[in-house]
């Protein structure tokens, strides 16, 4: 009997959509709109990000399973041409450009992906209980950079994948402070994302199969079924860039939902029920019984 190795270490594994990243050329405006319209708070500002050519803040969206993150980056003027975010901003304008997923063992999945030639690692970081692996987007359907991370279980963090407010390395080291912010913002929950394929690519049903094969995210028909959200794909269209087209956010309470829509309308961003923010359409809807039911 052959021993199990990296090539056989695939399969479906529980995976959480932990972080969605957007790029903009006006960070102050993005910060104001997210905190004002969504009623959320900044969870962390990372001083180290300047070394990578971006000024960064993490506006936070908390979902039914808790603790998830919206990230916004703005490349500095001097380094805009030499950063991934800067090049995408020039090519497609502001919008979503990366998703960060969380699994139980990102290192094992990295070995499976690389040994089977499914993807190319462009960033690999391992420290303390964290494994963070970013993959090259070339060949990936959906036009976004995929990253898969994990936290190793510990006495203080026994269930990092399923615990609603589990530690998340992107938020820094002050868990007490940032988890308190997470818990204050449970009025919003992630429902899902929709990505457009590249122009000419009309085989949208192949996209979730590719992501399932590579990262082990379960499929539900033509959607990727994360533990907390869904990711759908639409056909490519000539003249329109690939990437994130829309994001859906469940809201707890009718008054809270109406407040979000009213504030978006006041900013001139509400159109036909959608909120136009950070280059994508945002759908806000009433979450039933604390569970976001995606409107993909």
From TrEMBL:
What name has this protein been given in UniProt? Glyoxalase-like domain-containing protein
* Xref: InterPro entries: Glyas_Bleomycin-R_OHBP_Dase
Organism per entry:
Lophium mytilinum
Q: Which Gene3D superfamilies match?
A: 2,3-Dihydroxybiphenyl 1,2-Dioxygenase, domain 1
């Amino acid at each position: 009997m052959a021993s199990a190795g990296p090539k056989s270490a695939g399969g479906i594994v529980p995976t959480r959509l932990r972080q969605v990243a957007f790029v903009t050329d006006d960070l102050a405006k993005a910060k104001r709109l997210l905190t004002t319209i969504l009623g959320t708070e900044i969870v962390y500002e990372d001083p180290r990000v300047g070394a990578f050519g971006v000024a960064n803040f993490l506006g936070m969206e908390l979902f039914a399973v808790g603790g998830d993150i919206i990230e916004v980056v703005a490349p500095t003027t001097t380094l805009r041409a030499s950063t991934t975010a800067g090049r995408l901003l020039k090519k497609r304008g502001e919008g979503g450009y990366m998703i960060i997923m969380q699994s139980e063992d990102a290192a094992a999945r990295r070995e499976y992906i690389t040994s089977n030639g499914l993807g190319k690692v462009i960033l690999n970081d391992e420290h303390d209980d964290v494994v963070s692996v970013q993959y090259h987007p070339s060949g990936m359907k959906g036009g976004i950079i995929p990253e898969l991370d994990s936290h190793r279980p510990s006495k203080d963090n026994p269930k990092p994948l399923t615990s609603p407010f589990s530690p998340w390395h992107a938020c820094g080291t002050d868990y007490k402070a940032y988890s308190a912010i997470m818990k204050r913002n449970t009025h919003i929950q992630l429902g899902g994302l929709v990505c457009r394929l590249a122009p000419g690519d009309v085989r949208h049903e192949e996209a979730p199969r590719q992501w399932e094969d590579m990262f082990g995210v379960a499929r539900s028909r033509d959607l990727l079924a994360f533990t907390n959200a869904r990711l759908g794909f639409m056909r490519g269209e000539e003249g329109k860039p690939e990437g994130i087209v829309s994001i859906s956010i469940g809201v707890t309470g009718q008054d809270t939902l109406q407040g979000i829509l009213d504030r978006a309308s006041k900013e001139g961003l509400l159109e036909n029920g959608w909120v136009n923010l950070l280059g994508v359409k945002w759908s806000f809807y009433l979450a039933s019984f604390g569970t976001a039911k995606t409107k993909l």
